[in-house]
Write a structure and sequence with these properties.
The structure is a single chain. It contains 20 helices and two strands. The chain is mainly alpha-helical and about 500 residues long. It has one domain. A two-stranded antiparallel sheet has the order 1-2. The longest helix is centred in the last third of the chain and has 32 residues. The C terminus is likely disordered. One of its GO terms (biological process) is ATP synthesis coupled electron transport. GO terms for molecular function: NADH dehydrogenase (ubiquinone) activity; NADH dehydrogenase activity; ubiquinone binding. Its main location: membrane.
């Protein structure tokens, strides 16, 4: 048995931490440590709640579970309706797992306005969890848009020299796409008379209407993921964001675009999704190759990892629109794996930046000598990024490539080229930083990982290796839901009321 409000408690528990921190002061180091401790304990409690939800979740059922539904906005016929299925439960876990690690990584790096930073971070966690659990269009839109506010503040206040430019660019890009999605949501409400996602899914929409609605949702999700050519906000946001902001941005916020495609575009607009699939394939292939080539010439470590994220998300969008069980499961696994790997890579960059205050690759070399423990963990994440067998990155990529071959052999070869290029730029990055002689005196004096840094990177390395060797927990959790969706898309069945 489980508490009937388990999901709501999980979603809004971070706000309890916000309330507590609001009344605290951060005038001295001891007070700031108390603020950090409350934020960390709150986020860890959210992780425990998400684990309880996962424990009572039944992966053999394709229907939504842990559902809660309460009437609100009565004049608009909208409900507070939350629940999880085999797909959303994984993103809830990923969010709840990474947030305390990201907060822990700020223990020494964030020294200014610590109280406000932790409030923004916990508020961000609530909005992300709410977006993954919402089963009402209006509720989803509120959470989906609310994500922008704390992330905008995190980049704009605690970011680098060009933080204002990066935060405004991030906000405008994502807001513009979301406005079009709001128009589509209002159109669906006018056409169906409800904002309940399951009720909307019971209606068979005309093909012409599907196409326009699909494009409106696409505008929002393509920017969020981000797809080429609406990707240019991401490198700037990553470079200027503080380390923990980059972790959440890469590991969670980008996945909201892929989740949107899975939750809305495919099941609600199946005919339009099939119609626009060739467009998605072309944009995905361009993203994989283009972003990989751009990553090859980067000298800023953060910017290189940002472009690698764009390339990896190209695999995700291609896999989703193959409409096959292998492709969709591969895309889902790739998103979870990328969340772990990319988050870890940004943490690794943060470790070096905290010591030498530069992300310029040319300023390093021979780091393996003073930091052997760091070198081992960094290597695990690099191998995960290039999809080496035995790491989590391999499972998602191989499933997507198999599904891609069934669609088109030459398209699969283009994606395969992306795999090769990822190995080139990732190993080039590692080699330039780690190997060779210690060229600069400051590098030779670097201290190896602290206890806090080991506590943040260690669990990520463990999961990258665990899911590479034993991917069953992720695949088994999502299998029934994905098979059902893929089956409906293949048969063209119109009754999708329980999606």
């Amino acid at each position: 048995m489980y508490a009937p409000s388990l999901l709501s408690i999980t979603i809004f528990l971070p706000l309890l931490g916000v309330f507590c921190i609001f009344w605290m002061n951060d005038k001295n180091e001891a007070a700031r440590n108390n603020v950090r401790a409350v934020a960390l304990l709150t986020s860890f409690a959210v992780f425990i709640m998400s684990c309880i939800g996962f424990a009572v979740f039944d992966p053999s059922q394709s229907e939504f579970q842990l559902e809660e539904s309460y009437q609100w906005l009565e004049g608009f016929n909208s409900t507070y309706h939350v629940g999880v299925d085999g797909i959303s439960i994984l993103f809830v876990l990923l969010t709840a797992f990474l947030t305390p690690l990201a907060i822990l990584s700020t223990w020494h790096s964030i020294q200014v306005r610590v109280k406000e930073y932790m409030i923004a971070f916990l508020a961000l966690e609530t909005t992300m969890l709410g977006a993954f659990c919402a089963l009402d269009f209006i509720l989803f839109y509120l959470f989906f848009e609310a994500v922008l506010i704390p992330m905008y503040l995190i980049i704009g206040i605690w970011g680098g020299e060009r933080r204002i430019y990066a935060s405004i660019k991030f906000f405008l890009y994502t807001l513009l796409g979301s406005v079009l999605m709001l128009v589509a949501i209002l159109t669906l409400y006018h056409y169906t008379g409800t904002s309940e996602i399951s009720m909307v899914a019971r209606h068979t929409l005309p093909f012409d209407l599907q196409k326009w609605l699909w494009l409106a949702f696409f505008a929002s999700f393509a920017v969020k993921i981000p797809m080429w050519p609406v990707h240019t906000w991401l490198p700037d946001a990553h470079v200027e964001a503080p380390t923990s902001g980059s972790v959440i941005l890469a590991a969670i916020l980008l996945k909201m675009g892929g989740y949107g495609f899975l939750r809305f575009s495919l099941p609600l607009f199946p005919e339009a999704s099939q119609f626009f699939a060739p467009l998605i394939f072309i944009l995905s292939m361009v993203a994989v190759v283009y972003a990989s080539l751009v990553a090859l010439v980067q000298k800023d470590m953060k910017k290189l990892i940002a472009y690698s994220s764009i390339a990896h998300m190209g695999f995700v969008t291609f896999g989703i629109f193959t409409f096959s069980t292998q492709g969709i499961q591969g895309a889902l696994f790739q998103m979870i794996s990328h969340g772990l790997v990319s988050g870890a890579l940004f943490l690794c960059v943060g470790v070096l930046y905290d010591r030498l205050h530069t992300r310029d690759i040319d300023q390093y070399g021979g780091v393996v000598h003073p930091m052997p423990h760091y070198a081992v963990l960094f290597m695990i994440f690099i191998l995960g990024a290039i999809g080496l067998p035995g790491t989590s990155g391999f499972v998602g990529e191989i499933l997507i490539l198999v599904a891609a071959f069934k669609v088109s052999g030459w398209m699969a070869c283009v994606l395969g080229l992306g795999v090769i290029l990822s190995a080139v730029y990732a190993l080039w990055l590692y080699g330039r930083i780690m190997f060779g002689k210690v060229g600069k005196p400051a590098v030779g004096k670097l201290q190896d990982l602290t206890i806090i840094e080991k506590l943040t990177l260690g669990p990520l390395a463990f999961l990258v290796l665990l899911f590479g060797i034993y991917p069953a927990p992720i695949l088994r959790t999502s299998e029934i839901t994905v098979e059902k969706w893929a089956g409906l898309l293949e048969t063209g069945e119109s009754n999708r009321g329980d999606l």
